[in-house]
Predict the 3D structure of the following.
Amino acid sequence: MDKNKTSQSKKDPHSSGPVENILPTTNEKEMQKLMKDLDREQAYREHKCWRQYITVVISIIFVVFQLYASLSGHVPAQVLRASHLAFVQLLAFLLFPATKKMPKNTLPWYDVALGLAGAGCWLYIVINFQMYAHGFQNTLVSRAGNNTVLDVIIGIVGILILFESCRRIVGLPIMIIAAVFMLYAFIGKFLPGFLHHRGYSLQRVVCHLFYNTEGIMGTPIGACSTFIFLFILFGALLERTGIGQFFIDLCNAIAGGASGGPAKVAVLSSALLGTVSGSSVSNTVGSGSFTIPMMKKLGYKGEFAGAVEAAASTGGQLMPPIMGAAAFLMAESLGMPYITIVKAAIIPALLYFAGIFITVHLEAKKLGLKGLPREQLPKVGPLLLRSYMILPLIVIIVFLCIGKTAVYAAFMGILACLLIGLSVSLVDIAKGHKPTFRGKDILEVMCAAARNIISVAIACGMAGIIIGIVTLTGLGLKLGAGLVSLAHGKLFLTLLFTMLASIILGMGAPTTANYLITSTITAGAIIQLGVVPLAAHMFAFYFGIIADVTPPVALAAIAGAAIARAKPMKTAFNATKLAIGAFIIPYMFVYNPRMLMIDSTPLGVISIIATALIGMFGMSVGLEGYGFAFTGIFHGSKKSKKLIKTFDIIERVLFIIAGLLCVIPETKTDIFGLIFMAILISYQIIVKKIKTKKAQKSA
């Protein structure tokens, strides 16, 4: 889940092949600038003087405190959450300037003041809680429900500073939504209909949001301050071991020599890199700096190359075992073990990447593109010697599967990373080389983890405001009922409204914030209509993620276009077409939860995967306008090559319909879809034979 992918552009001392030497990769400074321009979370200050040591020391203390609190269990939940927010608020203003245009090498006094004030507001809770634990009487805990003027003032200041940090780092959308919800708490008594409530005072609202565990310090921050932080630390540490370059080399060895190999490498590597990245933009820039130039050099158009990387990188957050912070919050919200979320995500993620992979293959065949020469690909032998790098991921999966908590699994993964780093360094020293993993690297990992948690924690805090107002006013049930009423009780319309809301929110909010908002407001409405809770939450999760490639914002697609030197909107539309599976798969698992391995048998799961893959092939053929039936003509004479054509509009629509029938997880539709698909393919084969004979005669 580490967002700092630029290290992949550096030459890996353990790289197993020459592929990196044949490519014009994007300059590292250009990559960093691109990420800072497109990703708010990357636009942090980078001091080159004594000021950097301030944030370094605070970050180290933050990480050490989090490790102690999470692993010892001796820190009360309210103290842990308030302390977590105190560190986050302090670092937020020390690291992130008020605007993107402000210089990154300065530290204005007002940012220091805001950081200290924000941290002080949350430490006020910690101090009062500790005083109560030591027998003091007049504390926040003892006067609950009868707060003083000072309590209210500190609460107001803390909330306002949280809003400002949200504006800087997370963005305006979630800040505006949270403000509207707070306003609703005050003016609800003046509103008509189902929105009416008795109204609440300033003191009641502020104290409920700031001091109550149903507000800012609610479930989202509870998850953020425990296992989410540990997994972010794990991701940062894993990235430092060089696993990103290993994944790229591995995918090159597997698919680099196939038709359109670099594009397939982009799909596979992004799926793997998604297990350690929580940002679509960073994933696109990190792996795209290698894969996009490869695709363009092979013959893919810039818009398609950038779209492939953007669509695959965006889907990386859907790929188990580590799916970003939102997946952990889903487990916490539903009260389910994280392994249940992981198992539920496997089939949808495989189908998503299968759809992109098939489309990439068809595009390669249509253009007659070949793979990279075998001598330019990484060697399998050296790769096998580096396979130890995936051990931390295996450790995580094993401990989750045997029923251990997410905290325990993350901690064991961190230990595995440290052991691997130490072992590699010892081997380097024994060979007389400079060690690749040093104490400095551990400090950089701690700083990266502390920095990467800031946006997640702030998003969780803002979501806590929304959830707090919902619980205070009972708005959740009212909105759910209103949404169902608007959709006239129809499940499909309710899902459609939820999809649109998730995509619109996702255009300006990170996945974590998007999921928290949509699941709070809309998941309840979907569940009211009889949908399994896990399927309802996964539905909101999917569409929150896919917003990163959906025009007009499409940040991941814009990042891919920048690397490919292509048109951003054309790249975004191509990425949307490639990611078509993400617009269909959520509807599939809502109507048939067996896709999420809920109440399913092994045979049933195999059947769903098989028919869905055939369906994805049919839809890809229709969208791409090309099928295998014309492949053989590429190898004919020069005259025969003129006969190559894409399908007409009727053929494309028929393939899409046949694919959709196969994708819908129902026996009747599967049968009709398979028969329809067989007829279409048979027709194409017959047409191919006829045209090939004509071509041979004319030659």
Q: What stands out?
A: The mean pLDDT is 82. The longest helix spans residues 439-473. The radius of gyration is 26 Å. The chain has 28 helices and no strands.
